[in-house]
């Protein structure tokens, strides 16, 4: 609860090892879970494992995921949240969440490069690459996640099983919490509330990993 400023002030609250080691362990765990899930899904489709090495298929898949092609229905967009009127809003909100999340991930990579290659310790200036990417991505995730939560509240509940709805809500709220606390940390980083804001933000990141 003391005011701190300057390079390395975050590590005065939580050491670098205490930040990095749990994050790396969680990342490894999520990677294993995702890999096992992918292989199980692939077997379920009847495809051969070596087909996963088909680069042309990966290009098509990434392009379709990047444009969210299959959320456009037959070209009239998704009947959601209304069952009688198509709307592109859900797709737009998903775009904000996805590209906002990718921007925040890029901010983390940029911060890693700044620290370990250029020996610049966080927190970084407002006009630095990590902060600009994190700010833009965080705002995009907040808008997108709030939009999806509103749409979900207005949607027909009988179209999805209760467990799926609960998991969707948990993940959206986790995403929203990470972004809101990250933006709060940016605002409060020169104040005496920085330490508490940092710890809360790191906690929400851990929760996001586990819900993912």
Global morphology: globular
Strand content: under 5%
- Roughly how much helix do the residues carry, as a percent range? 55-70%
Main sheet overview? none
Number of helices: 7
Query: Quick one: how many beta strands?
Result: 0
SSE-based structural type: mainly alpha
Order of helices and strands: HHHHHHH
Rg, nearest Å: 20 Å
What is the CA-CA span between the terminal residues?
A: 31 Å
Mean pLDDT: 90
Low-confidence stretches: none
Structural overview:
The chain is an all-alpha fold and 212 residues long. It is built from seven helices and no strands. The chain has helices at residues 9-13, 16-44, 55-67, 89-116, 129-154, 162-188, 194-211. The radius of gyration is 20 Å and the shape is globular. The two termini are 31 Å apart. The mean pLDDT is 90.
Provide the fold topology.
Elements: H1 9-13, H2 16-44, H3 55-67, H4 89-116, H5 129-154, H6 162-188, H7 194-211
Helix pairs in contact: 2-7, 4-5, 5-6, 6-7
Name the features.
single chain; 212 residues; mainly alpha; 7 helices
């Amino acid at each position: 609860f003391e005011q701190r400023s300057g390079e390395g002030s975050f590590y005065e609250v939580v050491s670098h090892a205490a930040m990095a080691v749990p994050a790396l362990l969680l990342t490894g765990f999520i990677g294993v879970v995702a890999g096992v899930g992918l292989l199980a899904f692939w077997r379920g489709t009847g495809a051969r494992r070596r087909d996963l090495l088909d680069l042309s298929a990966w290009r098509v898949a990434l392009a379709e995921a990047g444009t969210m092609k299959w959320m456009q229905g037959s070209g009239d967009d998704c009947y959601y949240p209304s069952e009688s009127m198509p709307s592109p809003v859900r797709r737009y909100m998903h775009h904000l969440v996805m590209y906002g999340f990718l921007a925040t991930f890029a901010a983390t990579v940029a911060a890693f490069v700044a620290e370990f290659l250029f020996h610049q310790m966080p927190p970084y200036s407002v006009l630095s690459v990590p902060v600009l990417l994190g700010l833009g991505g965080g705002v995009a995730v907040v808008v997108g996640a709030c939009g999806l939560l509103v749409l979900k509240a207005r949607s027909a509940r009988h179209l999805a099983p209760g467990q799926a709805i609960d998991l969707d809500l948990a993940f959206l709220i986790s995403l929203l919490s990470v972004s809101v606390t990250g933006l709060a940390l940016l605002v409060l980083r020169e104040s005496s509330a920085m330490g508490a804001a940092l710890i809360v933000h790191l906690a929400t990141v851990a929760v996001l990993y586990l819900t993912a």
